[in-house]
Amino acid sequence: MATTADIKKGLCFIYNGKPCTVVDFQHVKPGKGPAFVRTKLKQLETGKMIDNTFTSGVKIDVIRVERRKYQYLYEDDFGMNFMHTETFDQIPLDTKLIDNPLLIKEGMEVEVLFNADDETPLQLDLPPFVEMKVVYTEPGIKGDTSSSTALKPAKLETGIEIMVPLFVNEGDLLKIDTRDASYSERVKK
Question: What domains are defined for the chain?
Fold first, then answer.
């Protein structure tokens, strides 16, 4: 058993009977009263974000987890199918375990977080940035070459639609932030 003093980003533990991971935390020691830990938790089964405050010294039930590299293969009726890069075992994962499933391209390597005790997949982590090609967007207007304040919609190769600056054209390769599915920069060819 661990206590709230052991809380750090990425720690997985049981909260209200469900596996959660710590997204953010802050230890607070007010001038008057006991210390406490303010946390932002992500429920691993549903992806729901929870804000919670623990009083200092509360015991928490930590889950032992393992991260394994998998490669995305295809999607079917059972979910998205991934192959372990070392053993070549294939597993289907429900799209509820993935934050932005439309940012996954065929052949992409990802990390899957497993509960080490019962081998159940808890979460799929995408790389921080992915490169995707624009398949459709309205043409850019002459003179709109560096303005990033005005945005327009663009459809990417996996079908996801994001907002991009006006100078982005069809066929451009873009770097996309997977945390919030936002445009980061245009990739030089």
Answer: 2-62 (2.30.30.30), 65-125 (2.40.50.140), 129-186 (2.40.50.140)
